[in-house]
Q: What sequence folds into this?
């Protein structure tokens, strides 16, 4: 079962904030009144004790002081609410971290890369509801985007935008074809994989220029353009309607993408990937951390 972290954050913010608000409006004034009455009672008892002997009024005063003390639940709510709220705002509207679990975006992103995703590049959305309330921009060809998988929205995918609304996209002979023009690539030799990607050693490496966004791709010239089950492009070129995007992985023969299951609705976009902040692969020889990848900008 996938843990719904956004829903958890919203619920935790509402609960801790609600407790804080109730305390400020209802409970804290009552405690202050009890504290005042306790102090008055203590003064009265002190005067009585002075005349009748010590120890007769201590118990009621202690009980009043305990009732006037701030409950532990309120203390925790006041401590956690600002932290949870800050995380919710940062994660929902500024930047969100993700981990790369598969090799579909190799060689741009490797298994074990931890990336940062810009949450405002394509507009601001309400957490959990995912409805947009502020337009700020649209995906461009070449962007690396995170989105909720249209066939299972509890799963996040990361791919590269190949086709935008109005484009006609096809894939043939290991080349992307947009609006009838083939996107040229420059051979870079043979790929040498590391860690979890070592099995892809020997595949062809090339530089693709997608509207000025230059990035490396992997492909195997000996396998078909479309794996079995990829039914979308098997029927011919696809025209991208308004509000949808055609996405592909940079590991062209090891990617489950728009060629197979169709287009990504604009409403499913999560954000634009822009940097690698950590790279940890337990299958890497030597240290599992690839220090050289930390801080890399994603193109």
A:
């Amino acid at each position: 079962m996938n843990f719904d972290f956004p829903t958890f954050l919203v619920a935790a913010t509402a609960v801790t904030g609600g407790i804080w608000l109730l305390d400020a409006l209802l409970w804290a004034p009552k405690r202050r009144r009890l504290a005042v009455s306790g102090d008055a009672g203590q003064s009265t008892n002190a005067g009585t004790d002075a005349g009748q002997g010590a120890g007769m009024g201590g118990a009621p005063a202690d009980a009043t002081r305990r009732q006037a003390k701030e409950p532990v639940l309120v203390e925790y709510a006041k401590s956690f609410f600002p932290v949870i709220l800050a995380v919710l705002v940062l994660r929902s509207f500024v930047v969100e971290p993700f981990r790369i679990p598969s090799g579909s975006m190799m060689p741009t992103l490797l298994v074990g890369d931890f990336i940062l995703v810009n949450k405002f590049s394509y507009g601001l959305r309400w957490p959990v509801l995912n409805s947009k309330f502020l337009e700020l921009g649209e995906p461009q060809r070449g962007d690396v985007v995170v989105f909720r998988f249209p066939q299972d929205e509890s799963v996040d995918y990361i791919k590269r935008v190949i086709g935008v609304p109005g484009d006609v996209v096809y894939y043939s002979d290991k080349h992307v074809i947009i609006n009838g023009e083939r996107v040229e690539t420059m051979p870079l030799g043979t790929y040498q994989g590391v860690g979890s990607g070592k099995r892809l050693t020997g595949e062809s490496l090339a530089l693709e220029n997608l509207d000025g966004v230059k990035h490396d791709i992997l492909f195997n010239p000996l396998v078909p353009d479309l794996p079995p089950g990829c039914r979308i492009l098997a029927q011919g070129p696809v025209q991208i309607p308004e509000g949808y995007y055609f996405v592909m992985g940079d590991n062209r023969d090891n990617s489950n993408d728009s060629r197979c299951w169709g287009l990504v609705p604009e409403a499913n976009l999560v954000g634009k990937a822009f940097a690698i902040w950590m790279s940890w692969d337990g299958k890497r020889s030597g240290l599992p951390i690839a220090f050289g990848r930390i801080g890399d900008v994603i193109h």
Remarks:
- The CA atoms of residues 13 and 86 lie 10 Å apart.
- The mean pLDDT is 90.
- Residues 5-52 form the longest helix (48 residues).
